[in-house]
Design brief:
This protein has 652 residues and is mainly β. It is built from 3 helices and 46 strands. The strands form 12 sheets. Strands 7-6-3-2-37-38 form a 6-stranded antiparallel beta sheet, with no helix packed on it. It binds 2-acetamido-2-deoxy-beta-D-glucopyranose (NAG) (4 copies). Residues 479-588 form the Galactose oxidase-like Early set domain. The chain crosses the membrane at residues 633-651.
Length: 652
C-alpha cells in the first residue's frame, strides 16, 4: 500500500526539516548512474501519403482491442466469433501483427475476451481482464463453459486475467493468471504509481447498458492487495445504467479521476474515499455514448498539471437508455468538447466543439503534441442488438470518415483543423480502435457491430478486417536522429545529454529552442478509449553552437512523482520544430512492480546558444524550450522547483 502514500508532488509543508536531511543523503554519496543509451532512431519506412490513410492488409481477427506491445508488434484481441482463421481447432480471436514484415499470426486467447479491459503493468507484462461467458454461433451461450464444446471451444472469460509478457520474437502467448478477477464485463484498467493495476467496474454478464442485477460497482487490484477483496465505489453504485468502462486517469496529485454517466469524482486510494466534482456538461461521455477522451500533455510549462479533454458523446438522460421509444440509430451525437483540470478545479470548462458531432470517436496523442480524432459516427451509440430499428445490428449510423486534429496550443476558436487531412476509406463503427505507432503514424482497425462474424453485400456495417495506417502531415519529413537517449527513465535522478547534429536541427541552430523530449504511452485501445494513454514532456535545456548548427540537449529524467507517468514501457520521442523523431520503446521506472525510487532532480545548465566564433553575426542568447502548450516559465525556475520537490520527496 506504500504506493498510495506518495505525497502530492508539490506538497511543501516540509522544506525546513527534510531539506537538510536530503542534502545529507546526497552528500553521503548516493551514486546514481543513468541507464544504457539507445542507438539513434532512424527514418520511417512506409510509403503512404502524408495526411491520408493506407490499407495495409486484413487483420485475422476484428480489432475490438488493440495495443502496441513492442516497437514492431501490435496485438489484437477480439471477442469469440467465427473468424475464418483457425487456431488449435477453433476460430482465432487474438493475433499479433509484426509491423516491419507486415506478417500476422493467430494467438490463443484461452477464454472469451469480449469487452475486456487492458493496460500494462510496471514490469512490462500486459493484462487483459474480464470478458464474456463461453459462446456459440451468434454470441449465444455455449452448452459448456469450460472450453470443451464447439463450435468455438472457448471457456468462460468473465473472471479471467489474461497476461502477455513483453516479447519481440514472435512466439509469446497469452497465459492466465492463477489469481482470477471478480466477474467483470467492460472493466477499466489504470496503472498506478507502483506499477500495479486497478481494475474498476463492469457488469457480470454483459448487455448494452448495466443494470442493478448484474452491476459490479467496485474495484480491485492486480497483483491483489490486502485480502484481495474488492472495494465498493459510490460513483459506480450511483451512475447506473451508464457506468461501464468508467473513464479513469491517475492524476499527478495521486488521486484517481473517475467519470461515469454524468458524475465525476476523484478517488483517494489511501482512504478509499471519493470527492465529488461537477457533473459533466452537455453529453454522456462513457460507453455506450463513447466520447473521445484524453489527458492532454503534461509539460514543464503547465507544471505537470493534468487537464482531461472529453469530445463528442451523446446527450442521453439516465432514464432514456432503456425506454422503449429510444432508438439509438436515429439519435444525434454531440459535438461538445469540455475539459477538466481536476487537481486545480472541480468545474468543467468549455472547449472548442468538434467540427462534426460524433460518437465512438478515438483521441490519439501524437508526438508533436497534437491530438488526432478519428473513427465513429454522427448518429446513435455504441452497442448492437437484434432490434428491428438497428442498422443490421448496429446501434450507430452515419459514419464520420474525416479525421480532425486538435492543437492544445492553438487559440480558442481554432483548436480543430482538417487542413491537409483526407478521409478514411473505411467506416469505423462500434468495436473499432486505433493506436500510435513508433514512426508517428496511427494504426486503425476494427468495426464490428455484430453478434458474430458478419459479412456480405447486404451488410451495412460488416465485421471489418481492413486495417489502415493514418499518416501525419510530417510523416515524410527528415526526422531528427538524436544520439544518447536512454533505455530507462527514473523519477528524478541524473540529467543526461542528447546530441543533435545540423541535419537534426534542419541546418538552423535556432531550432534548438523548439526541441521537445517526450515520453508517450500509447495505451490499450478499446471502445474508443486508450487506457493508459499519456504524454509527458521531459524538462530540458541546451548548449547549442551557431558555428556548426549542432546542439547538446540537456534532459531531465521524469519528474520525481510516478503519478505523473506510472512505471512500465512507453515510447520516447525527440521533436524538433514540430517534426518528431521515430519513437523508441523504453522502460519508465524500475521495471518492477514496487514502490518506485524517487531521486533528487539534477539541475540543468541554463540554455545557451554559443555564438559564431568568427564574429560573423551568428545568433546568440538563451531561452526556454518550446512548450507544447500553455504559458512558459523559466527553465531555471522549473529546475529550482523540481529540486525543492525532490528534496521533500527524497527526504521524507
Ligand atoms: C506547480 O504546481 C504546484 C502544485 O502541484 C504549485 O504548488 C506550484 O506553485 C506550481 N508552480 C508553478 C510555477 O506554477
Ligand atoms: C510482472 O508481474 C506479474 C505480477 O507479479 C507477474 O505475474 C509477471 O510474471 C511479471 N512479468 C515479468 C516479465 O516478470
Ligand atoms: C441475434 O442475431 C444473430 C445473428 O443474426 C443470431 O444468431 C442470434 O441468435 C440472435 N439472437 C437473439 C437473441 O435473437
Ligand atoms: C560544433 O562546434 C562546437 C563548438 O565549436 C564543438 O564543441 C563541437 O564539437 C562541434 N560539433 C561538431 C559535431 O562538429
Amino acid at each position: 500500500m506504500g504506493s498510495n502514500s506518495f505525497p502530492s508532488p508539490m506538497n511543501r509543508r516540509l522544506l525546513s526539516a527534510s531539506f537538510a536531511l536530503a542534502l545529507a543523503s546526497v552528500a553521503q554519496g548516493q551514486t546514481v548512474s543513468t541507464a544504457p543509451t539507445l542507438a539513434a532512431p532512424g527514418q520511417p519506412q512506409r510509403t503512404g501519403i502524408p495526411g491520408g490513410f493506407e490499407i495495409i492488409g486484413e487483420s485475422l481477427v476484428s480489432a475490438q482491442q488493440l495495443f502496441l506491445g513492442t516497437e514492431d508488434k501490435v496485438y489484437f484481441v477480439d471477442k469469440v466469433e467465427a473468424n475464418p482463421t483457425q487456431i488449435n481447432g477453433h476460430p482465432v480471436w487474438a493475433s499479433e501483427w509484426a509491423l516491419a514484415s507486415n506478417k500476422q499470426r493467430g494467438m490463443e486467447a484461452i477464454t472469451n475476451s469480449f469487452c475486456a479491459g487492458g493496460n500494462v503493468l510496471g514490469n512490462g507484462t500486459w493484462l487483459n481482464v474480464g470478458g464474456n461467458q463461453a459462446v456459440q454461433w451468434g454470441g449465444e451461450p455455449a452448452s459448456a463453459q469450460d472450453g470443451s464444446v464447439g463450435p468455438y471451444f472457448n471457456a468462460d472469460g468473465r473472471t479471467s486475467i489474461r497476461m502477455l509478457d513483453h516479447c519481440d520474437e514472435g512466439d509469446c502467448e497469452w497465459y492466465l493468471s492463477p489469481v482470477p478477477s471478480e466477474q467483470r464485463w467492460y472493466p477499466t484498467l489504470e496503472t498506478l504509481q507502483d506499477g500495479s493495476i486497478i481494475i474498476l467496474g463492469g457488469c457480470r454478464n454483459g448487455g448494452y447498458v448495466n443494470d442493478r442485477f448484474q452491476d459490479n460497482p467496485s474495484y480491485q487490484f492486480f497483483p491483489p492487495r490486502g485480502n484481495g477483496e474488492s472495494i465498493p465505489s459510490p460513483i459506480l453504485q450511483s451512475t447506473l445504467p451508464a457506468n461501464l468502462y468508467p473513464l479513469t486517469w491517475l492524476l499527478p496529485s495521486g488521486g484517481l479521476l473517475i467519470q461515469s454517466n454524468w458524475a465525476t469524482v476523484v478517488l483517494d486510494l489511501a482512504t478509499n474515499t471519493e470527492k465529488a466534482l461537477d457533473n459533466i456538461p452537455d453529453a454522456v461521455r462513457v460507453y455506450p455514448a463513447s466520447a473521445g477522451t484524453l489527458m492532454l500533455p503534461l509539460t514543464p510549462a503547465n507544471n505537470y498539471t493534468a487537464t482531461v479533454l472529453f469530445c463528442g458523446g451523446s446527450n442521453i438522460k439516465t432514464d432514456q437508455w432503456l425506454a422503449p421509444d429510444f432508438h439509438p440509430p436515429t439519435y444525434p451525437a454531440s459535438a461538445s468538447c469540455v475539459k477538466l483540470t481536476p487537481d486545480v478545479s472541480g468545474s468543467y470548462q468549455n472547449e472548442d466543439p468538434l467540427p462534426e458531432a460524433r460518437v465512438m470517436v478515438s483521441l490519439i496523442q501524437l508526438p508533436d503534441g497534437k491530438v488526432l480524432a478519428l473513427n465513429g459516427g454522427g448518429l446513435g451509440t455504441a452497442g448492437y442488438g437484434n432490434n428491428t430499428w438497428a442498422i443490421g445490428h448496429s446501434y450507430g449510423d452515419r459514419p464520420v470518415l474525416q479525421p480532425v486534429i486538435y492543437d492544445p496550443a492553438a487559440p480558442t476558436g481554432s483548436k480543430w483543423s482538417i487542413d491537409g487531412l483526407s478521409a478514411s476509406l473505411v467506416p469505423r463503427m462500434y468495436h473499432s480502435s486505433a493506436v500510435l505507432l513508433p514512426d508517428g503514424s496511427v494504426l486503425v482497425s476494427g468495426s464490428n457491430p455484430n453478434p458474430d462474424y458478419t459479412v456480405g453485400p447486404d451488410v451495412t456495417y460488416p465485421t471489418e478486417y481492413r486495417t489502415e495506417i493514418w499518416y501525419p502531415s510530417w510523416y515524410k519529413e527528415r526526422r531528427p536522429q538524436p544520439k544518447g537517449l536512454l533505455s530507462q527513465y527514473s523519477y528524478g535522478g541524473p540529467k543526461f545529454d542528447i546530441v543533435l547534429d545540423s541535419d537534426d536541427l534542419a541546418g538552423d541552430v535556432e531550432n534548438v529552442k523548439k526541441v521537445v523530449v517526450s515520453i508517450i504511452r500509447p495505451g490499450f485501445s478499446t471502445h474508443n478509449m486508450n487506457m493508459g494513454q499519456r504524454f509527458v514532456q521531459l524538462d530540458s535545456s541546451y548548449t547549442a553552437y551557431a558555428d556548426n548548427n549542432t546542439a547538446v540537449v540537456h534532459v531531465s529524467q521524469l519528474p520525481p512523482n510516478p503519478a505523473i507517468l506510472a512505471p512500465g514501457p512507453a515510447l520516447v520521442f525527440v521533436t524538433v520544430n514540430g517534426i518528431p523523431s521515430v519513437g523508441k520503446m523504453v522502460m519508465v521506472g524500475s521495471g518492477q512492480i514496487a514502490e518506485q525510487p524517487i531521486l533528487p532532480v539534477e539541475a540543468l545548465a541554463p540554455a545557451e546558444i554559443v555564438p559564431k566564433t568568427a564574429g560573423s553575426g551568428g545568433s546568440s542568447g538563451g531561452g526556454e524550450n518550446a512548450a507544447v502548450g500553455g504559458v512558459r516559465i523559466s527553465g531555471s525556475l522549473v529546475a529550482l522547483l523540481s529540486f525543492l520537490v525532490s528534496v521533500f520527496v527524497f527526504g521524507s
